[in-house]
Design a protein that fits this description.
- The chain is an all-alpha fold.
- The mean pLDDT is 93.
Length: 82
Amino acid sequence: MFFTNFARMVAWLVLVGSVMRIVTGVGIATEILGPYEEALRRYGGRAESSGAIIDRGVYALLVAIALGTLAEISRSVRGPRE
């Protein structure tokens, strides 16, 4: 049960982080956060473009969905033994 709960928590944290990364990438691309080059330097870290930031966010989102799915499967397999 510990690993199921831990996986659910990690999945939620990765989900929130990935959505924030996607929103940041879109904000940089649309220049909502300031001029493109300046916002990329400030919020992008070592990313070479806003598209790279969005790509990493989408990959992390897929990982979060997979981990959350596995946690739910683990929870349903355990059943009402608690």
